[in-house]
Each structure stands twice: as C-alpha cells, then as structure tokens.
C-alpha cells in the first residue's frame, strides 16, 4: 500500500433500505464504523457511506433521519417509489467516487477486520473482481452465500419445500450452496455471490452496467455475478467475516415467493435454463 493517502483509492458503501429494521441498521453502521477505522488512511483514502431509502413510510423516514452513529458520516438519498434493490444500489454506485465499492445489506454486522481483509485481497490481485465473505446467521451457524449455477429443481426445493423435507435432497442442495468447498478455510473462486456483501471496483461495476433494474428483488446479485465474471474471478474469502441477520424468501410469505419465482424465470431466460 502507498504511504501517501492521496495515492490511495476511496471506498464507497451503499446500503438500500425499505422499511428495514432500524435497530439492525444501526448495528450495521456501528460495525461499519469500527471496520472503517482500520482502513481509512492506510488502505483507502476516504469512506463515503450512502443510505438509499426506496420509498419507505413517512414514519420510517422520520426514524431514519433521527438515526445517529457517532464517528460515522453518511448521506441519505430518497426515492419517491420503490423501484427495487438493484435500482436503489445503482444510485449508490453512481454516487461513489471511484476506487472500491461495497454493496451492503442493512442487516449485516461487519467484523472489525473484514474491510481490511477484503480490500487487501482485491488490491493484491487485478484478476479478482469481487470479494464475498464468510457469513454466520443470527444463530451462529455458517450461511453459504456463494452458489453454483442453480437448477429449476434446486430453486423450487429451496423456495417451496419445508425444511424438514430438504434432508431427502441434501446432496443437491449442498452442492448448490458450495458447502463442499466453502466450508473450509481456503479462498475459493465461485460462480455466484450474494448481494448482502459484495466488495468490487467501481470502474468494473460501471463497465458491466451495474445492477439490471429489471430484477425488482432476488437474482439481481446472481445476474451481476455472471456479468462481472466475464471480467475476472469472484472470490469467496473466509478471512472476511460478517453476521447476516436476513432470511430466505420462503420465510417471508407468498409475496416474496412470487417475486422469487418471477426473478428466477428472468434469470434462467437470460443466462440459460438448467432443470435438474
């Protein structure tokens, strides 16, 4: 790394919210503040944090305006309507000043050394275009965020089959989740990464056109992964650690299942069908 701060790239972080949990968002920002202290001035020149509100309720907006995290500056961008996760993040990408860009969920706790580890990996290898982290759920169990290319069968099992029934298809589901290789302590090149934490270079994000806004919710991260993958390697890095308090579409009701199915259809139509 350069000793001259003016030679260092900036880091921009974008977080999209839509009536999201304010206590979890505050946790996310607190963790981001701590992690940023280890990189600003040594690995990056500056930190720019933008929260994009995708048309939340007036009550939520008031709570968001009142939110303060000491030691962390961030700006708010508001949309009059919810145009989707990808559209919200594209506003954050456009606002970024170049250098590195982090797509981050509002329900993620970033480990104190996560940003330093991720930036070090990305800066060390020009052939790496994205860094994805090791993730634990709220229960402390590992979440396998990175995926192999999905099949219609696997997605249907994940969306509609009760958890108790998934044990009959454990091999197929585990292969999709890459638990055979992402359960160890080694860095792994992966085909698809999760949008809850994606560290990338802004110029490469712009080169591939950012998120495809035709995906309202779900699979926009997989689609972006496919297009970024044409430029280089997506890296799962277990040294980069987060806690993710989110959940699967199946646990969020039928409206989310419909969006999941619609976005899945678009993904397969765009990138190719795989049935089994």
UniProtKB/TrEMBL annotation:
Bilayer-crossing regions: none
CDD domains: GT_2_like_c
Start and end residues of each Glycosyltransferase 2-like domain: 12-161
InterPro entries documented for this protein: Glyco_trans_2-like, Nucleotide-diphossugar_trans
Superkingdom of the source species: Bacteria
Name this polypeptide is given: Glycosyltransferase family 2 protein
């Amino acid at each position: 790394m350069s000793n001259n701060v003016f030679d260092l790239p900036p880091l921009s972080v974008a977080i999209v919210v839509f009536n999201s949990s304010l206590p979890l968002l505050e946790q996310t920002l607190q963790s981001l503040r701590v992690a940023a202290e280890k990189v600003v001035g040594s690995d990056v020149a500056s930190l720019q944090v933008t929260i994009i509100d995708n048309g939340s309720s007036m009550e939520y907006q008031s709570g968001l305006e009142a939110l303060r995290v000491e030691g962390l500056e961030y700006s708010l961008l508001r949309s009059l309507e919810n145009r989707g996760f990808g559209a919200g993040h594209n506003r954050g990408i456009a606002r970024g000043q170049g250098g590195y860009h982090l797509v981050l969920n509002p329900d993620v706790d970033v480990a104190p050394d996560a940003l330093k580890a991720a930036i070090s990996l990305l800066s060390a290898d020009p052939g790496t275009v994205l860094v994805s982290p090791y993730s634990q759920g709220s229960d402390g169990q590992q979440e396998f965020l990175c995926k192999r290319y999905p099949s219609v069968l696997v997605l249907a099992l994940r969306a509609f089959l009760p958890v108790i029934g998934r044990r009959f298809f454990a091999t197929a589901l585990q292969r999709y989740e890459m638990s055979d290789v992402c359960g160890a302590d080694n860095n792994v090149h992966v085909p698809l990464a999760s949008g809850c934490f994606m560290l990338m270079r802004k110029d490469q994000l712009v080169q591939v056109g950012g998120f495809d806004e035709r995906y309202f919710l779900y699979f926009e991260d997989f689609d972006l992964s496919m297009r970024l993958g044409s430029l280089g390697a997506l890296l799962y890095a277990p040294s980069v650690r987060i806690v993710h308090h989110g959940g699967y579409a199946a646990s969020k009701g039928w409206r989310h299942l419909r969006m999941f199915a619609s976005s899945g259809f678009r993904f397969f139509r765009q990138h190719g069908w795989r049935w089994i």
